[in-house]
Design brief:
Elements: E1 5-9, H1 14-25, E2 29-34, H2 37-50, E3 56-60, H3 68-80, E4 85-88, H4 103-131, E5 134-139, H5 153-172, E6 177-184, H6 190-193, H7 205-217, E7 222-225, H8 227-239, H9 242-248
Parallel strand pairs: 1-2, 1-4, 2-3, 4-5, 5-6, 6-7
Helix pairs in contact: 1-2, 1-7, 3-4, 4-5
Amino acid sequence: MGTGSILITGASSGLGAEMARQFAALGYDLALCARRTERLAELAAEIAAAHPRVRVRVAALDVTDFDAVPTVFDEFAADLGRIDRVIVNAGLGKGVPFGKGGERPNRQTVQTNFLGAMAQMEAAMKIFRAQGGGHLVVISSISAVRGMPKTMTAYAASKAGVAALAEGIAAERVPGVDVSIIFPGYISSEMNDKAAHPPTFLVDTRTGVRSMVSAIEKRRFKAYCPAWPWVPLAYAMKVLPLSIVRRLAGM
């Protein structure tokens, strides 16, 4: 069973909400934030009913409000006593092929997924340095392995960027701080449920998140989730021609 507290951003739906459920079942106290507070309240009530000993705190947070990020993180830390793990999960999946009028949605995706993640990492590391340790978890994507075409271009680049940020933090070897970079494959969530053609190898949310939670609990530095088929496919995507990578990506 887990002990300690976990802060999860983007926790109102999808992978974030399911991670909250599964970590609560392991006994962790939770600090949950997202833009949609009504969803957070429903999730907190659900977790409280299922796991009455788990403390759940919620707060509204738009990760692109860069001044609000450290404020919310610090308030959670003060309320719960400390934050043992921060999961940088909040993300956006908008995208338009370049040159087709997608400046705004592509910019929004990069601002949320990269600059918003950078603000979260800064706030988390400040807390971890002050308290003498912690576990920074960054949710990247299998699409970060190579450049992706069409609607995925900006998204994939933003997820490659957050993986590079996390790797740089890990390279510093801050005493007491572990870093995990999680590369989810195609896991059912609100981000991809509206896709006209479901991606290949899609797994249900609970199964996919169970793999993520297992890797996080083991404090794996890098993990492709689920391991099958994404460990071999990630290697293949790094070396195969882009024309084949495009087919693997369902593009």
